[in-house]
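Example 497, ligand pyridoxal-5'-phosphate.
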Amino acid sequence: MTSEPRLDPARVLDRLRELREHDAPTHGGRILAYVYDPGRPEIDELAHRAAEIARPLNGLDPTAFPSIAAMERDLVAFVRSAVHGPRFGPGRVVGSITSGGTESCLLAVKSARDRWRAASPDRAHARPRLLAPATAHAAFQKAARAFDLDWDPVPCAADGSVSAESMLSRLDDDVALVVVSAPAYPSGAVDPIREVSDAARARGIDCHVDACFGGLALPWWPGVPVWDFRLPGVTSLSADLHKFGFAPKGVSVLLHRGRARHRSQFFATTRWPGYPVVNPTLLGSRSASPLAAAWAIVQHLGADGYAELTARTVAATRGIAAAAAAIEGIAVMGSPVGPAIALVADVSVPEVERVDPHHLADAMAEEGFRIQHQPGYVQADGVRIPHSAHLTITPVLDAVVPEFGAALRRAAERARGRAPANPAAALAAMRLLGYGPGGRVPGPAAAWRILRLAGAGGGSGSAVPSRLAPLMALVERLPAPVAEALLSELIARVSEP
Ligand SMILES: Cc1ncc(COP(=O)(O)O)c(C=O)c1O
């Protein structure tokens, strides 16, 4: 127990504001990941007020709080219409509001697994496969671990694209669900959804479109190949309202083709002495605030409003891609469709002209813009998807393109010709300590000692070094379980009292 005097409410809020001063700026297009700023303050204000009205509710029971059911109905109907889900018939599209993309992905997998197991008695205790391109969001690895499926990542080309043939060659009866993305977060590529969903349908395999990222932008994006419920083989689809729906964090939509698929997502039990439990999603009690905020934004914007905001995102994306293309030494990875691009070193020019994307990201941070470091990834077939810098492009950036482009040019100038970070010394030390390939995995104390040696732990909340390029290079080359233990320890220590 602390003996510090209690604070009055005004002082508490001042303290919170002080804490917030150390956060990355959430508005104004300064951070190109994590947050989705429509650049329209009235949308934030509306979300704020709606969230406050719904704050006392508990989403656990929509019969006690019918406003929750009404808002969920409206949101599911809106997203269903945006992604062309049929409203009637046995293939009608129904769904749920979840707490975010990860929960939507987890539930899509759980549903498919339960249906796969129920399809025949010899499958009842079997372990099916979860098939997806290697660029599918990590939430699917989490789902495979949580729900006991074998994660089967299909290798992609170095530009992050996956071929339909390589996906199709791995479709078999032990696949409970095949996942495709619209688009994939690391590359911005839209997977070959038509080919994969057609083939899955022909074999009676469920196919999930992960549109958590693009689901509220692609419906209004020009020139996207058909990617949604217009394809008959698409059996479920996730779309996050807290991304390009512009709602505060905590709200996503998961849609299923047919009521039976949706219902197998539910957990219900009467086998305890308490109230009968029916949870459509993973959580029990849940906040209605993000739901109400999303509902209010959708009521306010409607499809036309989203079309307008998407047009600004399209303009910003084109402007930023053009700015990047004009800079010697960097290139856009692959052929992105939608509001994400990844910048890589242009390997077609001599090394002295190349711009390493992680040095670029570090230099951009000095310019006041945060772009996201993505470590390279060597796949099962040996093909390496190179390390890159991810950019999530939001409507607010439309007004900032010239400033962003100028910062990118200056940052590239400073990074050009610098060799990628080389973690050889750190790797050798790790091997000596027994954490090399095939070696041990550090526990909390050892992981923290290693992190301290690597310069982490400067002070509360500032545990991460300001230049991330060396850390990312190490993360890429360490055995995955070791890197995962180190990163888990870092994040755990940040919040440890
Ligand atoms: C394609 C895709 N799927 C799933 C997710 C997970 O979403 P969340 O962070 O809301 O859990 C993300 C997040 O960026 C994503 O881009």
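Summary: The chain has 15 helices and 15 strands.
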